[in-house]
Amino acid sequence: MSAGDVALETFRGPAGEFHAADLLAARRLRVVVGAATGPALVLGSRQHADVVNREACQRARVDVVKRRSGGGVVFVEPGSMCWFDVVVPVDDPRFESVAADVGASMRWLGRRIATALGGLGVGRATIHDGAMAGGPWADLVCFAGCGPGEVLVDGDKLVGISQRRTRHGSRFQCMVHIRWSPDVLIGLLAEPRPDVDELPPVGVLPADVAGALPGAVARGLTAAR
Asked: The whole model's pTM is what?
């Protein structure tokens, strides 16, 4: 496969439909913005439904969705976060050197997101270069821990990344907050669950910078061909 321009696309609809879409089938590198049309509590692939307070979700009209990539639970709320997937075929020459290594591929993308943030004026972005780290709630809540390649600003997690791999390639699911509302997220979880002050601080971006990030990532990947 020859390297070409990286398209920026938008998928508008419920969070569950975006997660169910087979974005790897087309086998071309692109960045797809998930424009969710309603709130959703999204579980990682290895999490069980018993972590969810179903009654609270029903009262708040929050969908409960399970994604195919790993990690902890995230709260998708239109206007409070930017959610985008980077879809990479295994044989794209920009990706081939790290395609067989989960950790290396996460760092590969994290570095490119950090570079894109630098181009948008966020000059303090770094990546977590070690193993999975975090406190006692890291397995439950995505932004309570930090995995390889995830992006930090001033030591606080800014961009969460999870990955789904198939024989066709990798689908990286990325989220950055415009507003971080841990009290809302915690209220949708079943016991045992953390108190707000047990969760680490989370980095946020202004809405215009967060909205520009997926395009900046796509342009950076195109330039890397």
From this structure: 0.95
CA nearest neighbour of 139 among 42, 71, 193: 71
Q: How many domains does the chain have?
A: 1
In terms of residue numbers, what domain contains 166?
7-223
Nearest partner of 217 among 146, 209, 155, 42, judged by Cα: 209
- From start to end of the chain, where are the E strands? 7-13, 30-36, 40-43, 63-66, 74-76, 81-89, 125-127, 133-134, 145-146, 151-153, 156-166, 169-177
pLDDT in tens, 135-193: 999 999 999 999 999 999 999 999 999 999 999 999 999 999 999 999 999 999 999 99
pLDDT-derived band at 3 (thresholds 50, 70, 90) equals low
